[in-house]
Specification:
It is a single chain. The protein is an all-alpha fold. The chain has one domain: Vanadium-containing Chloroperoxidase, domain 2 (Orthogonal Bundle), CATH 1.10.606. Helix content is 49%, strand content 3%. It contains 14 helices and 2 strands. A two-stranded antiparallel ribbon has the order 1-2. Helix 2 runs parallel beside helix 4.
Length: 439
C-alpha cells in the first residue's frame, strides 16, 4: 500500500524532550495523584482498555469533555471544540503545576500550598471551565465533580486543591473571554475562477469557521505565523499528479482503492482532534503517567491542536482553494467522493495539520516516536486499527482524506508541515521544565 510519510522522529525532537525534563514518578507526589475512575461509558468513551491502571482526574475529565463533544447540540456550532479542550486542560495544568511547581506556568501564576491535593485541583478546574462553556450540562458536571472529589480524602489538602482549581479556572475563563471566538462567521462569497473554492454538494453549505483566523491564539504570536506557501499552480505537474490520484482513489466507486484503503478512508471520518486525545489517553495509561505528567501532556497537546486549527483556517481563507469534487466535476460531472466534502477550502488539509501536530507532541513528550497502540473510531464501531508509532497513525489519518476524496496530496503535505511547525513552537516555548523539575 502506498504510504504518505510525515517527518519521522528527529534527533532535535529527542533533544527537546530531554531538555523539557525526563519522565519519572516522584515519590513525594504518589499520595497526591491517586484517583478512582468515573462512569464514562454513558458518554461514548472509545479508548481501548490497554492498561489496568485507573485513570486519574486528568484523563477522567478529558473523557467527560469528549462525551460532551459527542452529544448532539452540546457544542456551539460556530465555536471550534479545540478551544474547549485547550481551555480546560490549560486550567487543569496551571492548577496542578501551582502545587507541584515543576514547570513554567502557562498563563495563571498562583501560589498554592505544597501539600494541596492535585486530584482535587484538577477536577475542580476542569469542572468550572466546562460549566461555563456548557451551562446546559451543569447538572451532569456537578455529579461528575462530586464523584471525583469523593475519591479524595476529605481534609484540608482537598479543600486547598479545590480553591486552587477554582482560581485557575476563573482566570483562564477571564483571559479567554474576549478572544473573538464568539464572533459571527464572516459571510463567504465563492470565487468564479478555476481553482477558487466553491460551495460543495450535497448541501452546498456556507463555511462555518470563516471567523476563526481572527481568534486569539493560545500560544502562537499570530495566526499567520507559520502560514504555508501557496498551493501548486493548476498547470503544474504536481497539481496534475495530485488531481489524478484523488480522482482515482477517492471515487466512491473506485476500482483502484483497496478494501483496506476504503476502511481507512472511512475510519478517520470523525473530528480528528478526538482521535489524538484518545491516543494520548491510551499511551498515558500504558506509561503509567502520574497526574502532574498527564496535566502537562494534555495541556501541551490541546494548546497545540487549538492553535493548529487557528493556523490552518487562516491559511484556508487566505488561499481559498477548491476541493477535489469541484475540480474533478469540471471534467467528470458524475464523479462522487467516498465521503461528503467538508464545507471549507481545501488547502491545507485539517486532518494532516492536527495529526502531524499531535504526533509531534506525543513523540516529544514520550521521547520516542515508536509506541504500540490501538485506535478506535466513532464512525466505524467495532473496528480497531493498530500502530507502532505516532507518525504512522498521523500518516494514515492524513492519507485517509485522499482515499475519502476530500483532499489533494499537496493539501496534506502542506498541512503536515504546518502542524509540525506549530507543535515545535509550543514545545519550545511553553510548559518548560524548571531547573529542578521532573517531566
Amino acid at each position: 500500500m502506498e504510504q504518505f510519510r510525515m517527518r519521522r522522529f528527529s534527533p532535535r525532537l529527542f533533544a527537546l524532550g530531554i531538555a523539557l525534563g525526563a519522565i519519572g514518578t516522584a515519590a513525594a507526589f504518589t499520595a497526591n495523584v491517586h484517583a478512582s475512575s468515573t462512569n464514562t461509558s454513558r458518554r461514548g468513551d472509545t479508548t481501548p482498555a490497554t492498561a489496568s491502571q485507573a485513570p486519574d482526574q486528568v484523563i477522567q475529565w478529558n473523557r467527560i469533555l469528549l462525551g460532551i463533544l459527542r452529544t448532539p447540540g452540546a457544542q456551539p456550532a460556530t465555536v471550534h471544540p479545540t478551544r474547549s479542550m485547550a481551555m480546560m486542560h490549560s486550567a487543569v495544568y496551571d492548577a496542578v503545576n501551582a502545587i507541584v511547581k515543576t514547570h513554567a506556568d502557562y498563563l495563571v501564576h498562583l501560589k498554592a500550598p505544597r501539600h494541596a491535593s492535585v486530584a482535587a485541583a484538577a477536577a475542580q478546574a476542569a469542572h468550572d471551565v466546562l460549566v461555563q462553556l456548557y451551562p446546559s450540562q451543569t447538572s451532569m458536571l456537578d455529579g461528575d465533580l462530586a464523584t471525583s472529589l469523593a475519591s479524595v480524602s476529605a481534609d484540608e489538602a482537598r479543600d486547598q486543591g479545590v480553591r486552587v482549581g477554582t482560581t485557575a479556572a476563573a482566570q483562564i475563563l477571564s483571559l479567554r473571554s474576549n478572544d473573538d471566538s464568539a464572533a459571527a462567521p464572516i459571510p463567504f462569497t465563492p470565487g468564479t475562477n478555476s481553482g477558487d473554492y466553491q460551495l460543495t454538494p450535497p448541501a452546498f453549505a456556507q463555511p462555518v469557521f470563516t471567523h476563526w483566523p481572527l481568534v486569539k491564539p493560545f500560544a502562537l504570536q499570530r495566526a499567520d505565523q507559520f502560514r504555508p506557501g501557496p498551493p501548486p499552480a493548476l498547470t503544474s505537474p504536481t497539481y496534475a499528479a495530485a488531481f489524478d490520484e484523488v480522482k482515482s482513489l477517492g471515487d466512491i466507486a473506485s476500482t483502484t482503492r483497496t478494501a483496506d484503503q476504503t476502511q481507512i478512508g472511512k475510519f478517520w471520518g470523525a473530528p480528528i482532534q478526538n482521535y489524538w486525545n484518545e491516543i494520548s489517553q491510551t499511551v498515558a495509561l500504558q506509561h503509567h503517567n502520574t497526574l502532574p505528567q498527564n496535566a502537562r501532556l494534555f495541556a501541551l497537546l490541546d494548546l497545540t491542536l487549538a492553535d493548529s486549527v487557528i493556523a490552518f483556517y487562516e491559511a484556508k481563507y487566505t488561499y481559498r482553494a477548491w476541493r477535489p469534487i469541484t475540480a474533478i466535476r469540471a471534467e467528470s460531472a458524475t464523479w462522487t467522493p467516498l465521503a461528503n466534502t467538508a464545507p471549507d477550502p481545501a488547502y491545507p488539509g485539517a486532518h494532516a495539520v492536527i495529526s502531524a501536530a499531535g504526533a509531534d507532541v506525543l513523540a516529544s513528550f514520550f521521547r520516542d516516536d515508536h509506541e504500540t497502540f490501538a485506535v478506535t473510531s466513532e464512525v466505524l464501531p467495532g473496528v480497531e486499527r493498530s500502530f507502532t508509532s505516532f507518525s504512522a497513525a498521523a500518516d494514515e489519518a492524513s492519507i485517509s482524506r485522499i482515499y475519502a476524496g476530500q483532499h489533494f496530496r499537496f493539501d496534506q503535505t502542506a498541512g503536515g508541515r504546518l502542524g509540525r511547525r506549530v507543535a515545535d513552537y509550543v514545545l519550545r516555548h511553553f510548559l518548560i521544565a524548571r531547573a529542578s523539575g521532573y517531566r
